[in-house]
Design a protein that fits this description.
heterodimer, A: six-stranded mixed beta sheet, five-stranded antiparallel beta sheet, elongated, B: 313 residues, two-stranded antiparallel ribbon, 2 strands, globular
């Protein structure tokens, strides 16, 4: 099957700054693909090169197998949900949604019918006569979605669309977006700097740093088997053990990533259990987060370990520890992931 | 530290005034607004009302003194064919100048807003505003020389073998004349030049407020550049154009210097007002005449408001 979007050795420079550096990737038809990275990592530039707002300095961009490297945006079968939504302030919601049909010459009755269908799809029925300025952030976001889907694109690009929403709304939109993607069955390319968002929504995630791809994989692969130090550090909370620490705590010559929630914390002297590696330490910091408790524990050799414990409440077998408590940390050997020596 | 605070706090009178005003926002605002309100209210509005009152006074035919008795004679006189001519000519010129300014200003404003930044943008600003910093009279007289029969414009037409075009233009009745500097066409050209910055700046400000993402969204949804211009850029620039047109239109309506220096001998409202109050000494008629541009502008502003020109303010 041809890839929905393919990059072949794509680079993009702004003046002297190389924003994207020889990136090659394939986005499969119908998948929810996320470009994840910190700001300035090149993820948005990649999205803009798919949309046609930015042309690569070198390399080729293919959309459904056809060369689209230097195709203007209006020639591409791709639509975008912009970060600031980019709704036209001088048009009402219905005209905004119908815009793509209007410029294609669909008659008024036809395009309004379809615009109302799209508003129905994003759960905004009857809002057509409103102005964008009268809508809340979440509603504008839905209008932007409806507008981008009205032309029935085969690929939908989403540029940090949830960034401006508050936490609760963002979480419910994540679920809705994923459901919408299943419903319309087209390829979604999603840009975010929020690893939680990337993990929860994506079929596959591509992690960027400084214009280069660090790793492409399913959320499980990215989280459990990070290919590089950068991915290990950027996605999720964990302990990156290197050199002497790695040898002492994990018996590995390569750097090791040990997730904070895979470490069990127990009172000094409690049996670790079979197959577990144990190490004594002292609690240096406690951060109470409600559902979780973060501990920073200093173990032999002065290494500070981050431990993430589910809060089981009073009376449970698992106890909560105060600062200064003497504890024993333990984990399964399998919890230690060796990061490939060549990468990172 | 507390010793230093205690030392500074009670004695300083400015500090006491400041503390006194801090809790009294109303008084604070009143003090802030009193001078400008006095200026606007008494000097500006007062003189406008005096003008209005004057327009209802009469003239003593023999002594040439203003008679402070209510009469509508000035307004009857306004409706004389010669005066109506002046009004139609002035309003037509103002409309033409506004249109000319808009057509020339838009591409400049568009370039400034969309394709320049940093030093180049500053250079554009300077280029647009620099003429405003030099004397208006100097610039108008400079144009008189440029447009004269012996001037550089005439010469340029001759050198490029285009004299026939200029002659054809000058032969058009109503706008033509013996040379550009003695024709309504010349008046129009100089008006457009002089008021152009007042059109460029508001359009530029309006275009600058259009986010790049709106233009990208339009292209993304399938609109070619021409469609994006018609459906997105122009509608969003329209309030700026209307704001600029308020300047160009009202400034042209009231100006009496440019048509006095450049153009044929046909009169404009400003010149008539000037002559009536100065040479003829008929202040009441001059006052009545000034009500014409005020009324025209009131209508114009009402239309502009309905078009949403002030929504963006």
């Amino acid at each position: 099957m041809t890839a929905a979007v393919a990059f072949e050795q794509v680079s993009c420079a702004y003046g002297a700054v190389l924003a994207v550096d020889r990136v090659s990737l394939e986005i499969r038809e119908g998948e929810f693909f996320t470009l994840l990275g910190p700001s300035g990592s090149g993820k948005t530039t990649c999205l803009r090169m798919i949309g046609g707002f930015q042309f690569p300095t070198s390399g080729r961009v293919l959309i459904h197998g056809a060369d689209a490297t230097r195709l203007p945006p209006y020639e591409r079968d791709v639509n975008t949900v912009f970060q600031d939504y980019a709704l036209f302030p001088h048009m009402n919601v219905r005209d905004n949604v119908a815009y793509g049909l209007m410029v294609r010459g669909v008659d008024r009755a036809g395009r309004y019918r379809r615009a109302d269908e799209m508003l129905e799809l994003v759960h905004l029925p009857g809002m057509g006569a409103r102005r964008p300025s009268e809508l809340s952030g979440g509603q504008r976001q839905r209008v932007a979605l409806a507008r981008a889907l009205v032309n029935r694109p085969r690929v939908l690009l989403l540029d940090e669309p949830l960034g401006a929403l508050d936490l609760k709304l963002r979480e419910s939109m994540q679920v809705e977006l994923k459901a919408l993607q299943r419903q319309v069955g087209i390829t979604f390319v999603f840009v975010t700097h929020d690893q939680q968002e990337a993990l929860s929504m994506s079929d596959r995630v591509c992690v960027f740093d400084r214009g280069r791809i660090e790793q492409i994989g399913t959320p499980e692969e990215i989280y459990d088997r990070p290919a590089t130090r950068f991915v290990a550090g950027f996605v999720g909370a964990g302990n990156l053990l290197e050199g002497a620490q790695a040898r002492a705590l994990a018996g590995s010559d390569a750097p090791v990533m040990l997730r904070a929630e895979r470490i069990r914390i127990a009172a000094r002297g409690d049996a670790a259990g079979p197959g577990r590696r144990a190490v004594n330490g002292v609690v240096k910091e406690v951060e109470y987060l409600g559902a979780f408790i973060h501990y920073i524990v200093e173990v032999a050799g002065g290494t500070q370990m981050l431990v993430n414990q589910a809060n089981q409440g009073e009376g449970a077998a698992q106890r909560n520890f105060p600062r200064g408590a003497e504890v024993t940390l333990s984990w399964m050997d399998a919890a230690c992931h060796r990061i490939g020596a060549g990468a990172g | 530290m507390s010793a230093a605070l205690a030392a500074a706090a009670p004695g300083a009178p400015l500090r006491r005034i400041s503390s006194y005003l801090y809790g009294r926002r109303g008084l604070y605002l009143a003090l802030l607004l009193a001078p400008p309100l006095l200026w606007l209210g008494v000097v500006y509005c007062g003189s406008l009302l005096a003008l209005l009152a004057n327009s209802f006074f009469g003239m003593d035919e023999f002594s040439g003194m203003v008679k402070r008795e209510f009469t509508l004679r000035n307004f009857v006189e306004l409706a004389a064919p010669a005066n109506l001519d002046v009004m139609v000519r002035t309003v037509t010129m103002a409309a033409a100048v506004t249109l000319g300014c808009a057509v020339i200003a838009f591409p400049i404003a568009y370039t400034m807003a969309r394709y320049t930044r940093g030093a180049l943008r500053a250079a554009f600003y300077l280029g647009v505003m620099l003429p405003l910093w030099s004397s208006y009279l100097v610039r108008v007289y400079a144009w008189k020389l440029l447009l004269a029969k012996e001037g550089v414009v005439n010469w340029a037409f001759a050198q490029t073998g285009m004299s026939w075009l200029l002659e054809a233009l000058l032969a058009v009745p109503g706008i033509g004349g013996p040379s550009l500097s003695i024709s309504s066409l010349g008046t129009f050209i100089v008006f457009v030049y002089i008021w152009l910055p007042f059109m460029i700046l508001p359009i530029q400000a309006a275009l600058e407020r259009v986010p790049q993402s709106l233009i990208e969204a339009s292209a993304d949804l399938g609109a070619r550049d021409a469609a994006t211009f018609r459906k997105v850029i122009f509608p969003l620039a329209l309030p700026g154009i209307v704001a600029g047109s308020i300047f160009t239109f009202s400034l042209t309506l009231g100006d009496y210097i440019i048509p006095g220096i450049i153009g044929d001998s046909s009169m404009y409202i400003g010149q008539v007002v000037y002559l009536q109050q100065d040479t003829a000494g008929n202040v009441p008629l001059a006052a009545a005449f000034t009500l014409v541009p005020i009324t025209v502008m009131a209508v114009y502003l009402a239309i502009a408001k309905r078009m949403g020109a002030f929504d963006a303010l």
